Automatic annotation (TrEMBL):
Pfam families: SCO1-SenC. GO terms for molecular function: metal ion binding. Keywords: Copper, Disulfide bond, Metal-binding. Coiled coil: none annotated. InterPro entries: SCO1/SenC, Thioredoxin-like_sf. Cu cation binds at residues 71, 75, 159. This is Protein SCO1/2. Disulfide bonds join 71-75. It comes from Marinimicrobium koreense.
Amino acid sequence: MSRALPACCLSLFLLASCTQRDEPLVLTYGTLTETPRPIAEFRLTDQTGAAFSRTNLLGQWTLLFSGFTHCPDICPLTLGIIRNAEDKLETPGHHRVVFVSVDSERDTPALLQEYLGWFDPDWVGLSGTRAALNPLLDSLELGYVRVPLGSEGDYTMDHSTAVVLIDPEARLVGYWKAPLDAERLAADLATLPAP
């Protein structure tokens, strides 16, 4: 003899069923972490001058890449490949792109806004002091270092080249290593479930 669930229990059962994924996340070309890793609390500034924190990562898949606007090759190449991969999607992806500048001296919000406009003005650009950047980048295991060039005070930045995947619960769940391929990245982005 079966018994009907009370309305309150049925609601909880349906909510639990809807929030659990039927299938595990699979990346064909990227690499999944063994377990999702929560991202540390941080507070940076986006390209419009607004505050951006860990809370802003909740509710949506995020592709995050760190670099700097004065980069002569890796950064524009990587961002171009991400843009190309997005163009290859048949339907809009369930993700957003975030570019985190590791060059706090030169990359102002206005410069980030201009720079990202060359790729996609809807992408998010973040900047902040070294102390503000480190909690986020350390929790993503993305390194960077300032490299002096000559005696005029000029410098460049060496930085990680991986594109990381952050899930809608603000956890690091995967990454793609260089060299990136737009077709392969698009194939993986197409498999991301709706948040």
